[in-house]
Structure formats: C-alpha cells, structure tokens
Design goal:
Layout lengths: L1 E7 L5 H15 L3 E6 L4 H9 L7 E4 L2 H7 L10 H4 L7 E3 L4 E5 L3 E8 H6 L10 H13 L1 H4 L3 E3 L10 H7 L1 H11 L12 H13 L13 H9 L3 E7 L3 H4 L8 E4 L10 E6 L3 E4 L5 H16 L1 H10 L15 H11 L3 E4 L8 H16 L4 H20 L1
Parallel strand pairs: 1-2, 7-8, 10-12
Antiparallel strand pairs: 3-11, 4-5, 5-11, 6-8, 6-9, 6-10
Helix pairs in contact: 1-14, 8-16, 13-14, 16-17
C-alpha cells in the first residue's frame, strides 16, 4: 500500500484525482490514498501532514520559492523513469544538480470570453487586439448592460481567498513578467514596479466595468465569479484552461474563447499566460518501498491509457510527457493557436514572488483600493517595498 499523496491548490480537480487513484488500485491492487488541501491552505496542510508518522510520499511545490521550504525532503528524481519521459528538461525543478521536482501539468490563463454575448453587444474577437480595444469594448458593454440583460462586462474580481489569487498572483504576474523581460532577468531581490501603471489600468477596468460595486469585492468568491459567467451575467472572466470542465456543462465549445490579458506593453505580440506551478516531489524520508510505489504510480499517471486519458479528457490538462494525449479542451487549442500564430506566451513568473505574505499584502491593498478605502499608492508600496522586505526575510 502506498501512503498518501497530497493534492490541492486552486487548479487541482480533487475528485478527478480520487477517481484516478481508484482506477490505479483496480488495475494494480495497490492502494493510493489521496488527501486534499483547501484552496490557499496547501502549504499549511503540507506542514502538518509532513510532521505525521505516515507522511505523504508524493507532494507538490509551486516552483523555486516553494521548493526552498521542502528541498530537504525531496527525493532525487534524476534517474526516475518519469523524468526520462518529460518532453523537455525545462520541466525539471532543480536547485543544484538534483532533480527535486517535475512539472506535471502546463496550463494557460487569460480572459475567458462569452462569444455569444460579445456578438450580442455588437463586437467580435477581431475587435479586441490591444488594451485600448479591450477598454473601449468593455466600457461600451458596461454602458449598455441593462439593454443587454447582463450585470457587467467583467465577472466579479473577488477577494475572498478562493478567488483572490487571480489578481494578487495571476494578474500581478504581468507587471513582473514585463519588468523581467525588459531587464533581462528571471528573478530579483527588488522589484521596481516599472509596469504598475499598466496593472492599475487593467484593475480599474475590472472593478469599474464589473457585475458589482467595488466595495462588495472583498467577500466575492471564486464560485460567485464563475456563476456570474455561467449565468450569462458577464462577458469576460479572468481565469484559465482548468475552468473548462465546469464551463463546458453550460457552454458549447464554439461559445467560449480565451484572449490575452492585454497589458498595453506589447499587445500585438502578446499571447496567453502559459506555464506551471505544479511540481511533483517525492518524500525521501518515506520507506524505499513506498518511494518505489509512488514512482510507479506517477509513471502510470503520465504513460498509461487510463492515466493520460484522465489527465487530458477529465482534467483538461496538457502534460509535458512524451506519452501524453492531446487535450480535448478547446481553451488549450486556443492557447496553442496563439503560439502557432507567432504570439509570445507570457511566462509564469509568479513562482518567483518572494512569499505568500507578499501576495497577501498586495491583495489587501487591492481590496482596499477597490472599496475606495485605500489608495493606489498603497498598492505600489505593498508591491515594491513589500517585495524587498519579504525577499530579505526569505533569503536572510
């Protein structure tokens, strides 16, 4: 029997993992226990589970910053079969020579768009190729919302913990990405905030052309936001390829699109934001038999018919392994099309954000700004000064 593997995080489809574990048990007779962590609670749950005698053998970290806390627990995956199955060594997570983790899913995010409502408002996707276009269209939709029978151009920018990661992490990625790109770096101890005006412009759009008043956003959840989009109350919804499973219950594939979060920096070349913060790590403190069983399970997930089908069809994942099945998720097809058209995918630089505390500081400042009780200067302070402070704390 393999001891527990721990999944969870915003993008994890928990029930699907439970089903996959059952399938594995049926095929192999090996029991796999899957534990889940609540949204935003993964690190906390992992800390308490790792302290137990039957600690998880498989866990995940979100990239280089997440790895720092857990490096001492990571089994070296250099010679593992699963590592040889990766499509590229860029999906190996290293700190030194050892392969401490491997990416198991590549995802994309942007502005999910209800094409039917967009057309009802008199526009097509071709009308939105830049931030200025997006603002023009969203402002017009907001002005006509009563005639269109909708609540707002954008689904609510909720700051409940189930939803706030979309803005303090995913949206905040854009000013970091463009600053890193301009400075030719991939990490920094002091962010300058070169593109925070662009961040403000977009956030202003989200909270003014919204389904609700800015003061209500502090309590709005991920479900609220998704439901507004599902119920046809909003045209745009910032989220990613992982939402397809839920949205497809309501919408046909031809009704959904995903467009870049146009940032007003390099709009004509900007694609969707594509990357990963899901790296599998194996607990080297576990018994060797459990470690071997865990490696077998991981390998099965990304090579077997049942495993790759579950990943592609049920979870809608693109997995970076040679045996992967093409996903049937149309949002992924769209992401791939942007690449084929020569657009530059926005890298996921948020795995370099110095800490969870930094994100929370930015989130609090954004919430107060949206409610009108705080200023944009407070957001800039949380972003820039908060980064330097948290980086020092994390790196001594």
């Amino acid at each position: 029997e393999m001891s527990a593997s721990l999944v969870g995080s915003e993008m994890c489809i928990r029930d699907r993992w439970q089903d996959l574990a059952k399938e594995y048990t049926k095929e192999t007779g090996v029991d796999v226990t899957v534990l889940t962590a609540a949204s935003g609670e993964y690190e906390k749950t992992l800390k308490s589970e790792m302290a137990k005698s039957n600690a998880p053998t498989l866990f995940q970290v979100n990239g280089p910053v997440g790895l720092k806390n857990w490096k001492d627990y990571c089994y070296d995956l250099t010679d593992a079969e699963i590592t040889k199955g990766l499509t590229s060594d860029t999906y190996e997570l290293k700190d030194g020579d050892a392969v401490d983790g491997i990416a198991y899913v590549i995802e994309s995010y942007g502005l999910i768009t209800n094409k039917t409502l967009l057309e009802k408002a008199g526009y097509s996707l071709d009308d939105i190729k830049s931030y200025d276009d997006l603002k023009k269209v969203a402002d017009d939709i907001q002005a006509k919302k009563d005639d269109l029978g909708i609540e707002g151009a954008f689904a609510s920018t909720g700051f409940d913990s189930s939803s706030d990661w979309r803005f303090k992490t995913h949206l905040a990625n854009l000013p970091i990405y463009y600053e890193y790109k301009e400075d030719g770096i991939d990490d920094t101890e002091a962010i300058k905030g070169t593109y925070l005006d662009n961040y403000k412009n977009l956030f202003d759009l989200y909270i003014t052309d919204s389904t609700c008043d800015g003061a209500e956003l502090s309590a709005k959840t991920a479900d609220d936001s998704r439901n507004e989009f599902v119920n046809g109350e909003a045209v745009f919804y910032q989220n990613g390829t992982w939402e397809y499973a839920e949205l497809s219950k309501t919408y046909g594939d031809d009704e959904l699109a995903m467009i870049p979060i146009y940032f007003g920096v390099d709009d004509e070349n900007e694609g969707l934001a594509t990357g990963t913060e899901n790296y599998w790590c194996v607990n080297k403190e576990a018994d060797q038999a459990d470690i071997d069983a865990t490696l077998d399970f991981m390998y099965w997930c990304v090579t077997s018919e049942a495993g790759t089908s579950a990943m592609a069809d049920k979870m809608g994942f693109v997995i970076p392994f040679k045996k992967a099945k093409d996903s049937t998720n149309p949002l992924i097809t769209i992401a791939n099309q942007y690449v084929a058209d020569g657009k530059t995918s926005v890298d996921w630089c948020f795995s370099t954000m110095p800490s969870e505390e930094w994100k929370n500081g930015v989130g609090s400042a954004l919430t107060a700004y949206a409610a009108g009780t705080g200023s944009w200067d407070d957001v800039v302070t949380a972003f820039v000064d908060g980064w330097a402070k948290e980086y020092k704390l994390a790196n001594g």
